[in-house]
Amino acid sequence: MFKEILGLPAHVLVVHAVVVLVPLLALLSAAYVALPRFRSRLDWAVALLAVAAPVSAFVAVQSGEELTDAFVARGMQGPVLEQIFAHSRYGDILFRWVLPLAVATLLLLVATSGHRRVPKLPSWVTPVLSVAVVALGVVSIVYVYLTGHSGAETVWGNTL
Hints:
The protein has four helices and two strands, in the order E-E-H-H-H-H. The protein has helices at residues 10-34, 39-73, 79-111, 125-156; strands at residues 4-5, 8-9. Helix 1 (10-34) packs antiparallel against helix 2 (39-73), helix 1 runs antiparallel to helix 4 and helix 3 (79-111) runs antiparallel to helix 4 (125-156). The longest helix is centred in the middle third of the chain and has 35 residues, at 39-73. It is an all-alpha fold. A hairpin with a 2-residue loop joins strand 1 (4-5) and strand 2 (8-9). It has a two-stranded antiparallel ribbon.
């Protein structure tokens, strides 16, 4: 399922979505925290990104595993395979940070929605969720960088 898109390895296409969506989620959710007066303008975009970013990260991890399996099946070994495994570990860690970022963001959206069906929450919930969203966003951006850099270094490191 995650192997190819139009004859190309799915991973090399999907990673671009991760590189865009995860930092966008982190930045827009931080803006949602920092700029309460703009929350009504940001809420739908943040909610959509909170769904799309972890989905794209999951698909990137799965398609990366398919690509790695294909390389191993073709007999790839040595230092480049170790680089691929390191890149894979970063991708796994990235997904493990993006998923809680998405959940915390969605919880923050609900907590600050003011909707009549949302029960009255303790006053500490919004600040705690806000700190969690910003912190998880920063860590997620760091892991987008580390994952992307390790992948690019593996593919392009000795090219030029």
